What we know:
Strand order of the largest sheet: 5-4-3-2-6-1-7-9-8
Distance between the termini: 20 Å
Number of helices: 4
Mean pLDDT: 97
Helix content: 10-25%
Number of domains: 1
Structural class: alpha/beta
Order of helices and strands: EHEHEEEHEHEEE
Radius of gyration: 17 Å
Bound molecules: NADP nicotinamide-adenine-dinucleotide phosphate
Oligomer: single chain
Strand content: 25-35%
CATH topology: Dihydrofolate Reductase, subunit A
Low-confidence stretches: none
Number of strands: 9
Amino acid sequence: MRPKVILNCAASADGKISLPNRKQLAISNIEDFKRVHELRSECDAIIVGIGTILEDNPSLTVRNNSETKPIRIILDTHCRIPSDSKVLNGENKTIVAVGKDYKEKDLGNTEILECGDKEINLKQLLNIIGERGVKKVLVEGGETVMWSFLKEKLFDEYNVFFSSMIIGGVKTPTIAGGEGFQNEKSILNLKLNCVKQIGNGILAKYDRKEN
Length: 211
Ligand SMILES: NC(=O)c1ccc[n+]([C@@H]2O[C@H](COP(=O)([O-])OP(=O)(O)OC[C@H]3O[C@@H](n4cnc5c(N)ncnc54)[C@H](OP(=O)(O)O)[C@@H]3O)[C@@H](O)[C@H]2O)c1
């Protein structure tokens, strides 16, 4: 059985997730930041794409809670990850998921997991980690990875924190990138679970809709 998958991101009120030049900016407020770290502490693994590692260089650890150490999983078909990335600091276990033609690289004790061809096969990856005992996974972006999980309906919950700011820009990364659903029939409908005000922002929680 695949683990439970929670998608989470922070967006501006116009749905953007970074600056137009793809650089990170503080979109969450302190309360939402705490919520995300609590959510991380309840999960067995955190997944992000290599684009997020290259742009943001996150550590993907749980702040103020050294007890919980979710596995950090990076989707990186060609193994482009720089060896000085924070996720490779050995603080927590990290798995770099790669495709079959990846460029070999010395990543120290980091596990390199072959899982896919032209891109990482998400179903296969979830099954592998599920067999290893991972029960709950948090997917934290970026836009391409979010799109893949949504498109393949490989999620149970979808959480967006909408901050009270506008970023704008046609090329600015949005919550879901990729090619998008091309017609009305293929649009993904969600089930709204709840909406909650968090400081000067809104947390919207959706569930996958069976159809
Ligand atoms: N506000 C937020 O909550 C938030 C959170 C995270 C990131 N961000 C922002 O998002 C932007 C990065 O987004 P991004 O789209 O460039 O990068 P990304 O989604 O983090 O990573 C995308 C890359 O992952 C690899 N990948 C491998 N298998 C994949 C699969 N099955 N599906 C999707 N991707 C797969 C691909 O690269 P290869 O082909 O090389 O493997 C792909 O180009 C940055 O601007 C960052 O600041 C915002």
